[in-house]
Structure of ATP-binding cassette domain-containing protein:
Amino acid sequence: MSGELALRGVDKRYGDIVVLTGASAAFEPGRAHLLMGPSGAGKTTLLRLLAGLERPDGGEVTLPSGTRLAMTFQEDRLCDNLTATANIRLPHAHLRGAALEAFLAREREALGAVGLPVDSRPVRELSGGQRRRVAILRAVLADADVLLFDEPLKGMDEKTVEQVMDYVCPLIAAKTVLWATHDPREGRFFPDPTLWEVRDGGVFHL
Ligand SMILES: Nc1ncnc2c1ncn2[C@@H]1O[C@H](COP(=O)(O)OP(=O)(O)OP(=O)(O)O)[C@@H](O)[C@H]1O
């Protein structure tokens, strides 16, 4: 793949609100990058720019060509009327036959590993913490090269966090991960994370 996951001189405003001004950063592939910074500083905006969900007002956002992206959102973005398994399977609608069977087995194993039952309830009937786990599994099982996580563990109790990350860490250890968080201790989930701070319109490598 050519090109890098980077911002070059990026400006981003929402009306009168200036979020980024001339922000530049390059994120090394195959590594986890923790995005810290005060509330409202622009971590979500940065992830949305990298995902192509927002366009910069100035400068450029680049991705390696052919990058497959997956993202979790603070508000989960699940399909409320579908089950957990159907939500996780959404990026795999093309699978058939043996490949589908193999994915379904992997999905069942994943749900069990993070303490979720395989059941017929739509996700609207799940708790906030259960829904969050479904969203995380959908992203990590999506076969992406770059994973963008927006405060994925927010609101989860410590025991559930450990259970979820025991399963998730080996799956994403070699991927390019951007992980927005307010808790620097979450760096322990990654082999050699880099730390970034989004503040005052910039994105700074700490
Ligand atoms: N769609 C939007 N329209 C208008 N303003 C927005 C929009 N999205 C974000 N903002 C504003 O941009 C700024 C950055 O928001 P952003 O959500 O990126 O911050 P954040 O660092 O992720 O915050 P938090 O840690 O609270 O999640 C905030 O002032 C926010 O109010």
In short: The radius of gyration is 17 Å. Strands lie at 5-14, 17-27, 32-36, 58-62, 69-72, 146-150, 176-180, 194-199, 202-205. The longest strand covers residues 17-27. The chain has a mean pLDDT of 95.
